[in-house]
Amino acid sequence: MSDKLFIFDTTLRDGEQVPGCQLNTVEKIQVARALESLGVDIIEAGFPVSSPGDFNSVVEISKAVTWPVVCALTRAVERDIDVAAEALKYAKRGRIHTGIGTSDYHIKHKFNSTREEIIERAVAAVKYAKRYVEDVQFYAEDAGRTDNEYLARVVEAVIKAGATTINIPDTTGYCLPEQFGKKILYLKENVVGIDNVVIATHCHNDLGMATANTVSGIMNGARQAEVTINGIGERAGNTSLEEVAMIMKCHHDLNIETNINTQRISSVSKMVSGLMNMPVQANKAIVGRNAFAHSSGIHQDGVLKNRESYEIIDPKDIGLDENSIQLTARSGRAALKFRLEMHNVNLDKEHLDQVYEKFLKLADSKKDINDDDILMLAGQERASSHRIKLDYLQVTSGIGVKPIASVGLEIAGERFEAAATGNGPIDAAIKAVKQIISRKMTLQEFVIQAITKGSDDIGKVHMQVEHKGMIYYGFGANTDIIAASIEAYIDAINKINE
Ligand code: KIV
Ligand code: ZN
User: Fold this and answer.
1) In the chain, where are the structural domains located?
2) Which pLDDT band holds residue 323 (cuts at 50, 70, 90)?
3) Which end of the chain is more exposed for a tag (fewer CB within 10 A), N or C?
4) Does this chain's domain 3-275 share its CATH topology with 388-497?
5) Beta partners for 478?
6) The pTM is what?
7) Does residue 171 line the site of ligand 1, with CB under 6 A?
C-alpha cells in the first residue's frame, strides 16, 4: 500500500508575504476555494495577529471551505495564539501553527536568548495552543541551519507537550538535498515519539533547491509538504505545489500518493498568477508557458510519433488540453498539419504545401507563430478555393454621412453586385452581401483584434454566424478592418455551403 503525503498549502500566508502580491479577502476566498477543489489537505490561511485583514481572511476562509484543515500561524506568544484561536472559530477543522527560531543565529541575534530558554518557550507555546485545539503544529524556524542534536531535543520536547505535526523549515533555503534528507532521518531515528506525529518539510528556494530538498525530506520520512502555487513566496519563493504533486504522480517508485487532483493544476496556477500579478516564468516546470512546448523539429517529430519520446507528463494530467507544439522556422509540415487539425482545418497535400511555404516566410520574420497566424495563412489558402469569393468592396463612411457599401461577389464563376446602407460601414457591407445571398443568417459573435500593435498592422476578425440552428465560424485578416470583417463573413457563409 502506498503512503499518503499531506499537502499543506501556504500560498495565502508565506506566498502572500511577497511585496505587491497582497490579496483582498474576497480574492483569498476565491483562492481558498480553488485550493479545496485542487485537493489540498491543509490551507494556511494567514497570520491573524499580524493585521485585521489577515484576521478577517482566516475567519472568512474558515467559513468558506469545508473539507481542508484551516491553519493559522502564530509566534510562540500567548496573544498570537489567542488571536489565532479566535480567527479559527468557524473552521470545521482548525489548526494552530506555532513556533520559534532554533538556529544559533536566531537564538543569539533575534531572541538574545539561550538554547534551554528557547525549548521552554516552545513547550509553553504548544501547551497554550493545546488549550484551544487538538491539532497543533510546531515549526522550528531556520531548522535547516540548526544542528541536528539540538533540533532533536526541541522536537522531542514539543511532541511531549502535545504537538501533532512537526514542521522542519529550511527558512533560508540553505540546505543541500542530501543534508536536508539526513536531518529528517536523524529526527526519525533519534526522537522519542516521532512515529506518532507527522513530519513536515517547508523549504525555501534561495539556491533553487526547494523541491529537491522537499523530495529528499519525503524520501527520508516526512509526510507533509509545505508548498505554494507556482512556488511563490518571499525572496526566491517556496517549494511549488505542482512540482511536488507531479513528482509523486510520475515516480511510482516512491510509492507515495497525494490527494491532489492534478487536472486542476493549470487553472489554479493561472488564477493565482492573475490575482497576485505574478507572471509565471515561461520555463517554469509543470506550469510555465513553455513547459510542454517542443520547438525543435527533431523533438516535434518525436512527440508527434509518440508523446513519451520527449515527455514524461501528459499535458492533460495538469489540465492542459493539448501539447503546445510550438511553431518556429524549424518546424516541419507534420507539426503545422497537427496544429491546424487541432482547429479542425484539414488541408489536402497541395494546400498544405502552399500554407507551409507562407508559414516559413512568416516564421522568418516573426518569432512566435501562434494559432491565429496559422489560421490566417490557412484561411487565405482556403479562401482562394471558396465557392463564394469577394470580388470587390467599396465603402463610404465618416462623420455626418450615411455609411454605404457596394459589394461584388463571384459565386461559382458568376458575378453579382449589390449596394446597401447601414449604421456603420461593416453593417452596410454585410447588408449588401445579404442582398446577394438571401439566406437567414444571424451574426452571433464578432471579435476584432490587431495581430501586433502598430496602426499599419493586420487586423483579424473572428465571426460566428448562425444558420438553421448551426454555428459556422469565419475568419478574416486584412490591414483594412472592414475588408477583414467581410472576408470573415464570407468565410462563414462558404462553410454553410460545404
Ligand atoms: O520559512 C519559515 O521558516 C516559515 C515559518 C514561519 C514556518 O515560513
Ligand atoms: Zn517560509
Assistant:
1) 3-275, 293-377, 388-497
2) very low
3) N
4) no
5) 459
6) 0.69
7) yes
CATH architecture of 3-275: Alpha-Beta Barrel (3.20)
DSSP bridge partners of 476: 461
Q: Is 337 in the pocket of ligand 1 (CB under 6 A)?
A: no
Q: Which element (helix H / strand E) includes 371?
A: helix 371-383
User: By the 8 A CB rule, do 223 and 198 touch?
Assistant: yes
Class of CATH domain 388-497: alpha beta
Ligand 1 binding pocket includes 44 (Cβ within 6 Å):
no
Task: Look at ligand 1, atom 6, and give the residue with the nearest C-alpha.
Answer: 141
From 18, 98, 171, give the residue whose CB has the most ligand 1 atoms within 8 Å, as the site to mutate.
Answer: 171
Residue 75: CB within 6 Å of ligand 1?
no
Joined together, the cell numbers standing for residue 401 give 454621412
Whether the pLDDT of residue 435 is over 50: the answer is yes
pLDDT for 250-307, tens place per residue?
A: 999 999 999 999 999 998 998 898 888 788 998 999 999 888 876 666 777 777 777 7
Grid cell for residue 48: 491573524
pLDDT score of 296: 67
Per the DSSP assignment, residues forming a β-bridge with 459 are 450, 478
Amino acid 137: pLDDT? 98
Q: What is the pLDDT of residues 455-491, one digit of tens each?
A: 655 677 777 788 888 777 777 777 788 988 998 899 8
The residue nearest atom 5 of ligand 1, judged by CA position, is 141
- Centroid of ligand 2 to alpha carbon of 412 (angstroms): 70
Give 6 Cα–ligand 1 centroid separation in angstroms: 17
Closest residue CA from atom 2 of ligand 1: 171
Q: Does the pLDDT at position 202 exceed 60?
A: yes
Residue 266 is inside which H or E element, if any?
helix 265-275
Phi/psi of residue 3, nearest 5 degrees = -85, 155
Predicted confidence band of residue 249 (pLDDT cuts 50, 70, 90)? very high
